[in-house]
Structure prediction request, 221 residues.
Amino acid sequence: MNIMRAGSDRSSRLELASMRIIETRRAPNPRRVRVFLAEKSVPVEFEERDMMEGALAAADIRAMNPWMRVPILVLDDGRTVSESVAICRYFEELYPTPALFGSDAYSRATIEMWNRRIEFGLFQHVAQVVRHSSAKMAAFEQPQIGEWAEANRHKVVPELTRIDAQLATAPFIAGEIFSIADITALVAIDFMKPAKLAVPETLTNIVRWHHAVSQRPSARA
Prediction:
């Protein structure tokens, strides 16, 4: 169980107290939700289910999410929301400040654009390297294809290079304000470690940005 600092509104505290998020703490997508909630100082209970021990194949997990993946938000009335960005959007609606999805039409669109670019570009390539090269992930990828891991490995630096160019123009991924796009990029880059990948030192804008966002208290959530 991991409880973050409670908010000031009593009704919100009571509602949140009956929610829980099912996760595997070591996995990257649950971390995205933890960082997001930490940025908003929203208190939620986390329930650990270890995917590496086969816990996500349990009947109750299958009923909540047939894809058998985490995180899963379980609401106080038993309804569920899966997918990390969808869970973050739910809490953005409840707690709009700070605005991590943007505060006007242009900022929302720009943040959405960069979040998708990073999620379906960098994050996806890194994930495929891990899932198709790590012996620990063999049970999750049948067949596990080493050539596919290498094909994705070669796509990581081009993705990083595009992000580095964007960070030459602003302190954060989507502009002047820290957002969900920065959270996705932070988690993706930190996930490069088990993939035995590293950010080239020549990409100085990413190096600067990564150092800065890693110092935020939410990065340790």
About this structure: The longest helix spans residues 105-133. The domain at 10-94 is CATH 3.40.30.10 (Glutaredoxin). The two ends are 12 Å apart (CA to CA). Strands lie at 20-23, 45-48, 72-74, 80-82.
